[in-house]
Design a protein that fits this description.
The structure holds two protein chains of two kinds. Chain A is of the alpha/beta class. Helix content of chain A is 21%, strand content 28%. In chain A, 38% of the residues are buried. Chain B has 15 helices and eight strands. Classes of the chains: A alpha/beta, B mainly alpha.
Chain lengths: 160, 407
């Protein structure tokens, strides 16, 4: 049994709902999908017991009716990357924060709020990232239907 | 004692790029740091979705000037994995060669900046002079000092001749001698050690907890290097050590980087010696299948990670970039906790920050007269006109000459 298959089996044993939701793409690349209600449970398990202690990043996706979220975690000693996928409908785009056990997730969580309009439950208040302060809160540039609006022409003269 | 909050940035002499850190002080001691980023956000991820893969590659290469090869390689690796392309071994070796030359010039750049931040400008002059050797080699091999354009989907764009290999080895001999001097300096110079020891401390447990990357993590004794753990390009076939240090401070970060310069020399020699024969690229399809891949790359500043999703068309469906500085920003807050205000420049510099990488870009194109572009001559005309109107000075007859730019 490969290391990847062993990890898969341990996760399925702990969370039977992940049965059939795995993909071992190649050595050191695994993908698994979980319902968002079980995301925290899975992340805690893989961090504490399977030693996926390295939080690489969180990728947000516009998947049509849903927002997709990919949590990329790495196991330091083996170099295996586990990509955990979850989704939330755009009508209720709420995901829980994972900053209590992966503090490094704070900035990527702010990023999916700004760029995709996700709502991250439990994320501590803080500055937005990466859009500027004056950017409208209802405009999320990474949504597929978002197009840049024409700006008003700038005045010709700048003092400075 | 009353607390005072000092904003550093977005524009500040201690910073090379725009970012903002609000420091709350009690006397000279820092009690809190809030980082505000995003000033360099240019919308590259969105822009990639509107371009073909090959056009996106050139945009990705421009995320950062210093580690341009890092981003370009991370991106093409992901695309090649989706398209199931078998990149020829010679191309993988050439990518590795450019990667290590890039690491060398980046680390030398850092060493100079670090010297400058602590008032040791001789070190800046030495390292930046020596860095020219590497930049010259890169120019010979790729035609450019930065933004090498060596990568393409399926391999590399330029081959290396035997004469060039000989030139690389001559350059590496020089660099190795100079690196020995820097190691001697770093380990024996009492002033340097005094200034850097116990400054910007990041204990090992915090480096792990905050998922720090690159020399920052390795200087906190976390043996973490994608080249070893998740080998890509030719690294799986090469011998090298992951340099770590247990000082957990700026001094340790300096030792790790000078140690890595030696390892880079070692890797480059092996690449030149074992460069496989054969083609340098395979033909890549214009349309990339609907699939996804995660690519990791050990950039000079740490792990660079790219996620790419294809949809069967000529344009990517999604490109996500996580540059190493973003992973180290939270570590900076920890390093500066209870530090002195005067240590801020060197502690910030010690992560070798690169905020262009961090913020990436979403270039919002507006073709109807909003944000446009201005060429050099138009800018000059605008400047002359502005000074004539507002200051009563006429620059129109002055003859200015800058390197390579003439009117």
């Amino acid at each position: 049994m490969t290391k990847e298959e062993d990890i898969q089996q341990q996760i399925v044993t702990r969370l039977p709902v992940t049965e059939g939701k795995f993909r071992v793409q190649r050595a050191r690349r695994m993908w698994v999908e979980v319902p968002r209600e079980l995301l925290i449970q899975l992340l805690e398990f893989v961090k504490e017991e399977l030693k996926f202690t390295d939080f690489c990043t969180l990728t947000g996706l516009d998947d049509g009716e849903n927002l997709g979220f990919l949590y990329h975690l790495a196991q330091e000693h083996s170099g295996i990357v586990l990509n955990i996928r979850t989704k939330a409908p755009k009508s209720d785009p709420v995901i829980p924060t994972i900053t209590s056990f992966f503090p490094a997730a704070e900035i990527p969580e702010r990023e999916v709020k700004d760029l995709l309009g996700a709502s991250v439950e439990g994320l501590a208040p803080g500055p937005r990232y990466p859009l500027p302060d004056e950017w409208p809160f209802n405009e999320h540039p990474l949504l597929k239907n978002w197009k840049p609006q024409k700006e008003a022409a700038k005045p010709e003269e700048h003092n400075g | 004692m009353a607390r005072v909050t000092i904003p550093i940035g977005p524009q500040h002499p201690a910073l090379k790029e725009p970012e903002r850190f609000d420091l709350t002080l009690e006397g000279e001691r820092i009690v809190q740091l809030n980082a505000m980023l995003g000033y360099n956000h240019r919308g590259i991820e969105k822009a990639c979705e509107q371009r073909s893969y090959i056009s996106a590659l050139y945009l990705i290469e421009r995320i950062c000037g210093i580690c341009s090869h890092s981003h370009a390689t991370a991106f093409v690796q992901a695309v090649e994995e989706i398209a199931s392309l078998q990149v020829p071994p010679r191309a993988l070796y050439i990518r590795t060669l450019i990667a290590e030359l890039e690491r060398m010039h980046s680390h030398l750049l850092w060493l100079g900046v670090a010297g400058h931040e602590i008032g040791f400008d001789t070190l800046l002059m030495y390292t930046w002079r020596d860095r020219e050797v590497v930049l010259d080699l890169l120019a010979v091999l790729t035609g450019n000092r930065v933004n090498y354009g060596i990568n393409t989907i399926g391999g590399v764009r330029r081959d290396i001749t035997a004469e060039q290999c000989a030139e690389i080895l001559r350059g590496i001999d020089v660099m190795e001698e100079r690196t020995k001097y820097y190691i001697e300096l770093a380990t024996e110079d009492a002033m340097l050690a005094e200034r850097l020891l116990a400054v910007g401390v990041l204990p090992q447990a915090d480096a792990v907890r905050l998922s720090a990357v690159g020399p920052v993590a390795r200087a906190s004794n976390v043996k973490k290097d994608v080249r070893k753990q998740d080998p890509y390009a030719a690294y799986g076939e090469l011998e090298f050590e992951v340099v770590t240090d247990s000082h957990c401070d700026v001094y340790g970060r300096a030792l790790v980087r000078v140690g890595e310069l030696m390892e880079s020399c070692r890797i480059i020699r092996q690449v030149v010696k074992n460069l496989p024969e054969g083609p340098i690229a395979v033909k890549a399809p214009r349309k990339i299948p609907a699939d996804e891949a995660v690519s990791r790359y050990e950039a000079p500043r740490g792990e660079d990670i790219h996620y790419v999703r294809g949809n069967g068309s000529e344009n990517p469906e999604r490109v996500k970039v996580r540059a190493p500085t973003l992973a180290n920003v939270q570590a900076v807050a920890k390093m500066l906790e209870n530090s002195y205000l005067a240590d801020v420049p060197i502690v910030l510099a010690a992560i070798d920050p690169c905020f262009s990488c961090t913020d990436r870009a979403v270039v919002v194109h507006d073709t109807d007269g909003g944000r446009g572009h201005i060429d050099w001559n138009a800018l000059r005309t605008y400047g002359i006109e502005w000074y004539r109107k507002n200051r009563g000075v006429d620059f129109s007859t002055s003859k200015l000459r800058m390197s390579g730019i003439r009117w």
